[in-house]
Amino acid sequence: MAKAIPRTRSRRNVRIGSRKRARRIPKGVIHVQASLNNTIVTVTDVRGQVVSWSSAGTCGFKGKRRGTPFAAQTTAENAIGTVVDQGMQRAAVMIKGPGLGRDAALRSIFRSGIRLTIVRDVTPLPHNGCRPPKKRRV
Length: 138
Prior knowledge:
- Helix 1 (about 70-85) runs parallel beside helix 2 (about 100-110).
- This protein has helices at about 70-85, 100-110; strands at about 25-35, 40-45, 50-55, 90-95, 115-120.
- The longest helix has 17 residues, at about 70-85.
- About 25% of the residues are buried.
- The protein has a five-stranded mixed beta sheet with strand order 3-2-1-4-5, with helices on one face.
- By secondary structure, the protein is of the alpha/beta class.
- Belongs to the universal ribosomal protein uS11 family.
- It comes from Schwalbea americana.
- This is Small ribosomal subunit protein uS11c.
């Protein structure tokens, strides 16, 4: 007798489970990108996979108000709130950019109850940068 070949079902018929599953994340990295116009807070696990993120634009701020410290504070609280529920206790903070929201975002991260292991400024600095424009002749 010949063996029966197992039928492989197409992807359409297979029920896909919930993509957002409850993960326990004890440690993570919080990236704060504070530009002059916006503040983006991204929370990742130790391997660098994004767990949660928020920006001043998604929190409902528009125009010039996105670059304010209050918008950055709201953004940080929004991004970290979901992660605290997943059990994050310790985190490293990487801050990038010259924006006004740097300190406000860091202050709200302190208040969230997560213990910070390290706070590092990772703003890129040129080591001589681009060639300047040639001198103006009048």
